[in-house]
Amino acid sequence: MFRYLDYIIINSLLVFLAHSLQDSGDELSKSGTKEWNGSTNSRFFTYVVAISSSENIDAVHCSGSLISKDYILTAAHCFIDKNTNSISKEKFLVHSPFSVDNQISEISVITTHSNFSLHDGINDIAVAKLSTSLPLLNEYDYAKIYTDVPVSGNEVVVAGKGLSEISSNNILSTRYFSSSISDSSKCKYKFCSTCLCYPVYNDKSTCLGDSGAPVTVDTPHFNHLIGVFSFTISPKPNLECGLDGDVDYFTSLTLYTEWISNNTNIQPENLISTK
């Protein structure tokens, strides 16, 4: 399975829409989605899952969050190919290393937002129903939606299953890093009305396999989600992760609580964080 980038020129910038396709071949090309220089501590992020190729569980395609034992939350573009066609659910497996029962499940239903735009990242959100339940030890371990509207300066923590090196990832580990939401000039290319962003500094960034990863507020349990990682904009025409000057964009979840509830049958009171 190859991982490709879609190249979209906007205001003379190269937009990295972290994008995966099924294809023949024997290598991974580097894409714009993992905490390139993050820390590892999976116990803080027991709800984070790897969405992998059904042909190779170690080939991490995207990251996601368990919002119940039967549903994960992730990015829509994880399930759409470069021609905007849906990728078959049979192509994926979901791995949850902290599930107390089964740890691997197929996907039975994929629901992407009907107004998702691959070309600008608007409404980049999806839920997937698991064929086999992946229960966590406690109800409060599942990801919850934080409904306060994020503002510039808010500290966020991003956690995912993607690469920390170009040839290295481990579905058993979760890497994370912190940053701050910005409305500065570094985020002035904000063409996505449903997105928020943070600038990349000191190699702390997402990379291949982090699409759909949770963006959380900095709380003791790190499970209060404000976003789903979507894409990176870089001023340089290269495929490297973690470059100063890059900007990571994520889908703001405050806009989607009702959509998530309607497409999972999870009641809003069971989705929203108690803060």
Automatic annotation (TrEMBL):
State any single GO MF term: serine-type endopeptidase activity
**Nucleotide-binding among keywords:** no
Keywords from the named record = Signal
SMART domains from the xrefs? Tryp_SPc
- What Pfam families does the record tag this protein with? Trypsin
Q: Where does the record locate the signal sequence feature? A: 1-20
One GO biological process term is: proteolysis
**Naturally occurring in which organism (per UniProt):** Smittium culicis
- Gene3D superfamilies, per this entry? Trypsin-like serine proteases
Q: What is this protein called?
A: Plasma kallikrein
Keyword Signal present in the record's keywords: the answer is yes
- Name the InterPro entries on file: CLIP_Serine_Protease, Peptidase_S1_PA, Peptidase_S1_PA_chymotrypsin, Peptidase_S1A, Trypsin_dom, TRYPSIN_HIS
